[in-house]
Amino acid sequence: MSRIKELHARAMEHAEQALMARMRGETGLAVELFREALKCEAAAIDELDEYSEPTFSILHRSAGTLALDCNDLRTAERMAARALAKEPPPDVAQELRDLLEQIHFRRHLELRGIALGEDEVQMNLTGPAVGFGLVNSDEFLTRVNDSSRLLHRIVERRRKTPFRERGRAARDIEENYELFISTPRAASFSVTLKLGSPVGQQTFPELLDASAIVDEFMDLMDLANESKISEIRERIPEPAYFRNFLGLARKIAPDGDRIRQVGFTVIRGESQRCVGITRRSAEFVSLTPESPAVEPKTVTVRGMLRYADATRSGSNEIKVIDDEKQSHLVKVPEGMMNDIVRPMWDSVVEITGTRESRYLMLEDIREVRTVERPFDDDGPGADGTGSDRRSTP
After folding, report:
1. What pLDDT sits at residue 232?
2. What is the C-alpha to C-alpha distance for residues 86 and 77, in angstroms, rounded to an integer?
């Protein structure tokens, strides 16, 4: 048993070094260290004289996770399946099932003969709302739109542009960093998103490299999925851009019911880089995670979002009508109105905030799915026109 413990400890040491290398952006070194860790864990399994739990299943779970980290999907699959074929403890069995689900998702993220350019990323959706080459249009289109908004915000921030609280992105950004979508591919729903100009259109040397924008998108989504908020804040020190990113990342994330996982894949050099978003949107951190010295009392209100007023400078107000027809005025902090709040117009939302005078100061907003969309006495639109939020930009 001492030999097994020694090999397992060595595997964990290599794994920790690999994680540090990956955080530094040294992807190749990280993969090599994960492979060394996997060799040590596999050697520890070979040292087992007889089947005993929980040692057997824990070592196989660890080896399977390490194999997944170095993209050896077949080994990861065999390790998880071998342990599940025995009688692991219930909690370890669930972790092994979760590991198998991650392995299957990683297979969906593989490009399977699809060539990607440096300015392209494959987006993949899996879940009950996804069929063979089909997907619920809202689930797909909202994530494409939010990915486009996030990419444009990265461009604006890297150009040191003050946060744009309202209106469209600058014309040169929309033209030179437009998002193009490929024909969908079957199995899990996959499309290629291309960030850049149409083929043949003139580009200019002062433009930011589209591949660098895509890489930052991948980095930030990976950090968000791991809830590494301090590292995100280091990358995005500006409060408005920081709040905006967290809000858009939450909207892209899976809901856990209709969409179970959202994945992104890019090609860098001769290897693929995959970021799988498995954390549910409801598990994401608050859009305003700053911790004040005195914790104020939070209030939660659920109702219909009736308008988003950003027409007056410094206004940034929304109104929510609850089930008892009570009106609640809510102040929206900078960075959240245009991309996060306004697209939820005429939807049932849940607002979390703190009470200040006659306003709620918004901390968090989530769209609530309902079987039937409730309306007030004026009809389906806030002004009685019958407008639907899906028809608004």
Report:
1. 92
2. 15
